[in-house]
Recover the amino acids of this structure.
């Protein structure tokens, strides 16, 4: 059987990955639709429920948490879920606030997880910038991740990143990215008057080209009101860029098995 990964989108930034027999979850968000406070009188509005509840999801081997300071990346139910997870890889800021099984990973540092059938899956923390240059003090620390292993596709999970320069730095360190899970949606809030907090659809297509990604699975472009571009914009941008065949769009609840002949 050719190596690959299974990805199931749950809505927003939350996805379940099955990689070499390991179950990994990105940014747990399970709360229902509604308004979620975000300090200084601001709110984020969730428009759709998660495709799975924590009970339906069941146990995972690790959570890859891009950041904890925004409710669209870690909500109340997600925080409760972390209590039953054996390992949460995240930022130093998140570790200081969450404790428990959280483990801070420095940029370009890695953690190796044992694969059930032998060997390891390496999870490398990579940079992410959650907005225009110079807004880091407003949006806080964010992590991206790259998954690698013998006979496995190399997978990039961007986290809430809006910087193509960051994407270029990842491509320099990892010249082969087989699957890019790009947080898109062109998010906008009143916190940043000019610029987006995540990649636009056109930037996601450019990122795919920079990375040379064989397949792109966008996340975090649905289920929240502050996204200004959805699946239709992603499809148009990748079509315009001549990359339509590399794009896999998943609605909440959808799953895809990405198998790469060349691995």
């Amino acid at each position: 059987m050719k190596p690959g990964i299974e990805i199931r989108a749950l809505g927003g930034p939350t996805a379940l990955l099955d990689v070499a027999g390991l179950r990994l979850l990105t940014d747990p968000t399970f709360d229902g639709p509604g308004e979620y406070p975000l300090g200084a009188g601001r709110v984020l509005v969730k428009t759709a429920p998660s495709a799975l509840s924590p009970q339906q999801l069941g146990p995972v081997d690790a959570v890859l948490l891009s950041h904890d300071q925004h409710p669209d990346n870690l909500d109340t139910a997600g925080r409760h879920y972390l209590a039953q997870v054996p390992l949460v890889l995240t930022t130093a800021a998140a570790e200081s606030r969450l404790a428990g099984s959280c483990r801070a990973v420095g940029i370009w540092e890695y953690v190796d997880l044992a694969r059930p059938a032998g060997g390891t899956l390496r999870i490398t923390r990579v940079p992410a910038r959650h907005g225009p240059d110079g807004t880091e003090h407003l949006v806080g620390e964010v992590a991206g991740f790259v998954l690698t292993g013998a006979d496995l596709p190399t997978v990039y999970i961007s986290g809430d990143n809006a910087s193509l320069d960051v994407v270029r730095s990842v491509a320099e360190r990892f010249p082969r990215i087989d699957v890019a899970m790009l947080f898109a949606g062109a998010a906008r809030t009143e916190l940043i008057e000019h610029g987006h907090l995540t990649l636009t659809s056109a930037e996601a297509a450019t990122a795919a080209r920079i990375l040379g990604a064989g397949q792109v699975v966008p996340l975090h472009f649905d289920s929240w009101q502050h996204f200004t571009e959805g699946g239709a914009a992603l499809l148009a941008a990748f079509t315009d860029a001549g990359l339509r065949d590399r794009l896999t769009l998943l609605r909440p609840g959808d799953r895809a098995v990405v198998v790469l002949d060349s691995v």
